[in-house]
Amino acid sequence: MEPNVYDRKCGSRQVLDRIGDRWSVLVVLTLADGVKRYGDLARRIDGISQKMLTQTLRGLERDGLLTREVHASVPPRVDYALTDLGRSLLDLVSGLEVWATSHLAEVEAARARYDAR
Q: Which residues form the signal peptide (predicted)?
């Protein structure tokens, strides 16, 4: 069967949900410049809860977009890094970041006009 993101039963919909999730986008962007520890990710991504960060990391790892490497040390150290598949998302999510930041004023103005009605 050909993948069809419009079909709720198609696995491609789950992939789209994963890569379109705001936390996933921010994790991928944060890992763009290399390996990060859990605490680095938590500090960089303002507003993400510990539970949501953990869930997002597990989902991205499950989907093959990042790796989780546990180092035997005290305290234990865990490193996260994008896989080749995860790095293949960088142009896409970087484009979203650029669009969101460059069009923020326009979106805020549209919201203000809408809310004023």
A: none
